[in-house]
Amino acid sequence: MRVSTNMMFSQGLAAMQKQQARISEAQNEISSGKKNLTPDKDGVGFAKASNLEVRNSQLTQYQRNIDFARGKLELQEGVLGQSTDALQRIKEVAISAGNSFKLGEDANAPSRQALIDELAQMRDVMMGLANTRDERGEYVFSGTAATVAPLQVDGSLDPDVASAQPVSTRIADNREVEIYRSAEGVFSAGGGSVVEAIDTMIAAIEAGDMDGILAAQGEVDDIMDNVVTARGKIGNSLNVLDRSWENNDVEMFANTKLLADLRDTDYADAITRLNQSMMVLQATQQTISKTQSLSLFDYIR
After folding, report:
1. Residues 126 and 141: beta-carbon distance below 8 Å
2. N or C: which end of the chain has fewer CB within 10 A?
3. Given CA atoms 111, 112, 113, 117 in this order, what sign does their dihedral have?
4. Is the pLDDT of residue 275 over 70?
5. 204 and 93, same structural domain?
6. pTM for this entry
7. Do 17 and 148 sit in the same domain of this protein?
């Protein structure tokens, strides 16, 4: 088979272009610090890298959810802590009122009126705590009815809130935490709210009704139990958030390292390929140069 000079030149030119492409690729990998990882070059590596990116994106969202949840839960935990202190004071006022009855004090005695005034203040405090809003203006104790105030002006629990469901967010695979809960079961007991219990207590003190005071005090006790229980659950949820954050962070770190192994430039390999390609290119150029200088007389001896 006869090989023409033109064919030899074309083959040499194609070989040069191939080596130049390899040189450019190696130089880009060295300068950018990243491999040219594509499906056609390394299908398995490309698929692994893509899956790791997707997973890290998911974990990043989990971490955002954890940050969001932590803010909501810490706010609620603080509110419930203040509520516990307020409810404890309400119980003390009820005991003081009961003692005043036992001592036979007049219903209009200044000391008893002072207790009533304090309870009126505590009513406002508990109303404000139960109707706490977050930075977005949503009520944190209204569950899925977050735009509705839990306690109405008269102190009763809003029907929409009473039927609302808790709101949860996902913080890890197969793990969620409640970030909004309903005032039902927290600031209410026996069908009445904490504010209604305080109103009942004030009315009983004004009427000198010892049984009424004891009944209202029992409602306050039940509500305090609910508040303490809810606060404990929030504490547990905050611990879960911390553990989930750590687990997600460890996995993200490992994934990022694997991505680096797949995508970061192996400088020793890239420099070796660069030098080899430059040597092959130089040899090819010399071969083409010799081919171009050939003439018929070179074959006549």
Report:
1. no
2. N
3. positive
4. no
5. yes
6. 0.75
7. no
- Name the one residue in this structure whose structure tokens are 């004004």: 206
- Whether 63 maps to a domain, the answer reads no
- The CA distance from 277 to 198, in Å, is 87
Determine contact, residues 219/190, Cβ cutoff 8 Å: yes
pLDDT tens figures, 55-78: 999 999 999 999 999 999 999 999
Same domain, 167 and 185: yes
What is the b/e burial string over 80-101, where b = at least 16 CB atoms within 10 angstroms of the residue's CB? beebeebbeebeebbeebbebb
Task: Extract the runs of DSSP E, i.e. beta strands, from the chain.
Answer: 167-172, 175-180, 188-189, 192-193
The encoded tokens of residue 214 equal 């004891």
Residue 194 and residue 217 in contact, taking contact as beta carbons nearer than 8 Å: no
Q: Are residues 132 and 276 in the same domain?
A: no
Q: What is the DSSP letter of 158?
A: P
In a domain, 224, yes or no: yes
Q: What is the DSSP string of 25-68?
A: HHHHHHHHSB----TTT-HHHHHHHHHHHHHHHHHHHHHHHHHH
Q: Alpha carbon of 82 to those of 136, 144, 203, 210, 228: distances in Å?
A: 21, 24, 25, 28, 11
CATH code for position 152: 1.20.1330.10
Tens digit of pLDDT for each residue in 14-26? Answer: 655 655 655 555 5
Residue span of the structural domain in which 19 resides: 5-35+265-299
